[in-house]
């Protein structure tokens, strides 16, 4: 037998893992042990890291949660069901508390602590107090509609309670006193919680199943997950399921208490079971004491838990902390200890994720940990490697974190071989060769080849086509996945080369359940001559292979479409949408490029201030700081993006191959001239010890102020001796710092390039033009709640036309809040800060008056 190719082995591993997932989570019939599943997953992960061009977004290694079952309708969560970061040591808990205390500047913090149940996370939607829909977590954004099955769970209320009858104080004191006033029931309420199977009930169920020859459940968690995915709700009703609520999602028409513990009490008041083990504790020591007490009781609890969860108790603090990636910064799961073993680091490699995040992975000498052979482990980020000082050749302690993800815990220094070298993050992406950059103040390093990196290709195309970017309506995720996998779309410019034949072929491929079914669907659209050879080639595809659809789509077939056998209007509409997107606004195209940190408002500002894509893509990063609200981090991100040859080639392809046209190109705004001077440029370059005052002293030595003089000055500066800077008035400390900075070749080149760009901007920017100002110039406006007369997007656009900056959150810098129907926390914060608030009538009156003017 010949050794399978990496592509073939990856396809087989994905098929096995998907089959195992389906049997475990959907059929409730596990066919392989956990250790075998983990071994296959690790092998797949290792192959994908070694062959990143074969990585796909739907690979089991990229999965967060479980994909929705094809047997249930999909439910898009109004607010994503986020995952939590993990802590495994006292030190990590102290760090978690310290980060929040430093950010909020509070010496004392209160947390809500609760057990982390090992069940199935769900979201329950109530409208006007009635249960209308229930969904699994799924992948966090989309879950499965299991409403009918959830209705059989007696612990889940079908109608919310509006009174306090029967309510008392729970074990933890989380419930409110019975004499407290009942809160109004929201118009819409989403409750998040965990469906689980109590241990005693699980044992009783299995005992009866064994007695009567029925199906025995593998474990309580598997039993809960499988029960909710039964097509027949009568089977679910026979399963002993329970439920605990632990939070909320979307809330409309009411304001919940502004603390987590009070929210749990409110949920209990409305009829939801809440864990009696939840407590409010103070500081890191309170959290750790809770963790130890729950750990001691773990085996005696009536349900399975795999750790505890800590959440900052007050809502204001939660909002200020915000989120990172898919997890809140104000909450963490403290997992119970996992087993640890010693092994050796054989290599440290970089894995590039779909968003460009560069994650170091340790390749290990195989070692058995908790019954599983571990061959690789995450090192999380460069900071973690530096903290542990992990080196190739080191003996290390490996832990299966949370019994799932292997990680390196520590280095056994006394076993370190002689001659090892400290590890450094590579300068280039191993997939595309673009620069790997680190954002200021962040632990994450990213590949800056957003448009050109194969590892990021699907995400880049998905963002490019989205409604707020190029707005290519009809180009859904499934189409993007299959077009990329088939190699038909390798970059965003390829979208503009798609043909109607390819799209209709794609629809047939996606709708077919097997190669044989595809052959039957293709047959009515083929010319008689040569059709047998085409159909045989399709039928011979391996239907068990994960990528058979991509291989089927890549086949060249001469179609003669039979309109009676296939709908074609959707394909014509999609081609029309692609064509329409060619005539683009500059701000939309800039946003569509997917540049890190460049959202809609930043893209709009760049378009307004510079007006020309050709100019923007050639600017060094310091010049971007001339745009209000663009600081060093965003400016560097822009600079890194445009410095990558692959990104520049992708833009060239859009303009030439895709024939994308910018319809609103214009000269830079006259307001730009105010910051186009040498002193400002020197400050924007962020030269150590060169403050605004020192920069002005240097600039004052210019005999004349002109683009040519600035260029000549910048070119001469790297060769100037330090005493010249002292003669210009700089203190010795500043002069020495400037000399040292200029001696770095990259810095000297950046200065010269920036001075050249400054000179070009001076020549292109109009002089003496007085630009019209609007009544809201310099004002920050926030829209919240629903408007009956127009969409929020339309209202925002009209306010921006009058000079306003429309922001998404309320802060002390906000000047005005427009509150529509069911305005929630943003309105409450505006009232708290004393910010001016308008209703819809005031907004319409203001717009009408100024439209008339």
UniProtKB/TrEMBL annotation:
Query: What keywords are assigned to this protein?
Result: DNA damage, DNA repair, DNA replication, Ligase, Magnesium, Manganese, Metal-binding, NAD, Zinc
Chain sites annotated for binding NAD(+)? 34-38, 83-84, 114, 137, 194, 311, 335
For the keyword Magnesium, the answer is yes
Look up the record and report any one GO term of the cellular component aspect.
cytosol
Domain called BRCT: residue spans: 771-853
Q: Which GO terms describe its molecular function?
A: DNA ligase (NAD+) activity; metal ion binding
Taxonomically, the superkingdom here is Bacteria
State its role: DNA ligase that catalyzes the formation of phosphodiester linkages between 5'-phosphoryl and 3'-hydroxyl groups in double-stranded DNA using NAD as a coenzyme and as the energy source for the reaction. It is essential for DNA replication and repair of damaged DNA.
- What HAMAP family is this protein classified in? DNA_ligase_A
Similarity comment = Belongs to the NAD-dependent DNA ligase family. LigA subfamily.
User: What is the name of the protein in this document?
Assistant: DNA ligase
As recorded in Swiss-Prot or TrEMBL, the protein's gene is named ligA
């Amino acid at each position: 037998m010949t050794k399978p190719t990496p592509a073939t082995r990856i396809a087989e591993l994905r098929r096995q893992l998907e089959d195992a997932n389906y049997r475990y989570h959907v059929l409730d019939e596990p066919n392989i042990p956990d250790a075998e599943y983990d071994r296959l997953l690790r092998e797949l992960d290792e192959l994908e890291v070694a062959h990143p061009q074969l990585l796909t977004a739907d690979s089991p290694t990229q999965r967060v949660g479980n994909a929705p079952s094809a047997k249930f309708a999909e439910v898009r969560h109004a607010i994503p069901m986020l995952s939590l970061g993990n802590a495994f040591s006292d030190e990590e808990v102290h760090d978690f508390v310290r980060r929040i205390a430093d950010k909020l500047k509070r010496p004392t913090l209160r947390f809500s602590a609760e057990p982390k149940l090992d069940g199935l996370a769900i979201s329950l939607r109530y409208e006007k107090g009635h249960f209308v829909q229930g969904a699994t977590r799924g992948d966090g954004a989309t879950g499965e509609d299991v409403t009918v099955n959830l209705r059989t769970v007696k612990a889940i209320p079908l109608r919310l309670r509006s009174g306090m009858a029967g309510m008392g104080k729970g074990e933890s004191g989380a419930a409110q006193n019975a004499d407290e006033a009942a809160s109004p029931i929201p118009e819409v309420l989403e409750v998040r919680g965990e469906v689980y199977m109590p241990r005693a009930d699980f044992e009783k169920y299995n005992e009866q199943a064994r007695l009567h020859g029925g199906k025995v459940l593998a474990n309580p968690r598997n039993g809960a997950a499988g029960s909710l995915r039964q097509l027949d709700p009568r089977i679910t009703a026979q399963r002993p399921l329970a439920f605990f609520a632990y939070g909320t999602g979307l809330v409309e028409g009411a304001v919940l208490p502004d603390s987590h513990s009070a929210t749990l009490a409110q949920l209990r008041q409305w009829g939801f079971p809440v864990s009696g083990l939840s407590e409010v504790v103070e500081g890191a020591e309170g959290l750790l004491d809770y963790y130890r007490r729950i750990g001691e009781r773990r085996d005696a609890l009536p349900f399975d838990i795999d750790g505890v969860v800590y959440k900052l108790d007050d809502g204001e603090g939660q909002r200020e902390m915000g989120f990172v990636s898919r997890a809140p910064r104000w909450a963490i799961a403290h997992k119970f200890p996992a087993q640890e073993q010693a092994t050796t680091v054989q290599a440290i490699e970089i894995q590039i994720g779909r968003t460009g995040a560069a994650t170091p992975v340790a390749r290990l000498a195989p070692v058995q940990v908790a019954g599983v052979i571990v061959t690789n482990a995450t090192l999380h980020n460069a900071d973690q490697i530096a903290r542990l000082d992990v080196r190739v050749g080191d003996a290390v302690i490996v832990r299966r974190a949370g019994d799932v993800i292997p990680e390196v815990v520590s280095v056994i220094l006394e076993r370190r071989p002689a001659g090892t070298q400290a590890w450094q993050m590579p300068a280039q992406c191993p997939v595309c060769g673009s620069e790997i950059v680190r954002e200021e103040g962040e632990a994450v390093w990213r590949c800056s080849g957003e448009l050109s990196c194969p590892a990021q290709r699907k995400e880049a195309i998905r963002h490019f086509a989205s409604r707020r970017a190029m707005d290519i309506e009809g180009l859904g995720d499934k189409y993007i996945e299959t077009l990329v996998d088939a190699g038909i779309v390798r970059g965003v410019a390829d979208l503009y080369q798609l043909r109607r034949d390819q799209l209709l072929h794609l629809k047939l491929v996606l709708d077919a359940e097997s190669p044989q079914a595809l052959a039957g669907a293709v047959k009515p659209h083929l010319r008689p001559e040569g059709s047998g050879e085409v159909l045989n080639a399709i039928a011979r595809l391996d239907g068990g292979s994960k990528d058979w659809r991509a291989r089927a789509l890549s086949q060249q077939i001469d179609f003669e479409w039979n309109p009676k056998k296939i709908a074609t209007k959707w394909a014509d509409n999609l081609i029309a949408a692609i064509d329409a997107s060619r005539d683009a606004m500059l701000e939309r195209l800039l946003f569509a490029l997917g540049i890190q940190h460049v959202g809609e408002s930043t893209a709009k500002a760049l378009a307004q201030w510079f007006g020309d894509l050709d100019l923007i893509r050639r600017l060094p990063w310091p010049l971007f700081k001339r745009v209000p609200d663009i600081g060093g981090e965003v400016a560097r991100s822009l600079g890194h993006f445009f410095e990558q040859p692959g990104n520049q080639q992708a833009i060239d392809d859009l303009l030439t191959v895709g024939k994308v046209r910018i319809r609103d190109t214009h000269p830079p705004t006259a307001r730009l001239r105010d910051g186009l001077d040498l002193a400002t440029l020197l400050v924007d370059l962020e030269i150590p010890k060169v403050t605004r005052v020192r920069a002005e002293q240097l600039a004052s030595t210019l005999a004349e102020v002109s683009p040519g003089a600035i260029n000549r000055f910048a070119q001469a500066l790297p060769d100037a001796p330090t005493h010249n800077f002292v003669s210009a008035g700089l203190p010795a400390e500043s002069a020495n710092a400037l000399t040292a900075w200029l001696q770095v070749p990259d810095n000297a080149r950046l200065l010269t390039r920036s001075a050249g760009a400054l000179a070009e901007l001076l020549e292109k920017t109009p002089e003496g033009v007085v630009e019209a100002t609007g009544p809201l110039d310099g004002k920050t406006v926030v829209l919240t709640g629903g408007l009956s007369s127009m969409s929020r997007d339309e209202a925002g656009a009209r306010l921006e036309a009058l000079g306003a900056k429309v922001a998404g959150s309320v802060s002390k810098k906000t000047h005005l809040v427009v509150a529509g129907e069911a305005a929630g926390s943003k309105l409450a914060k505006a009232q708290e800060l004393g910010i001016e608030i308008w209703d819809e009538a005031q907004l319409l009156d203001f717009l009408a008056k100024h439209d008339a003017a």
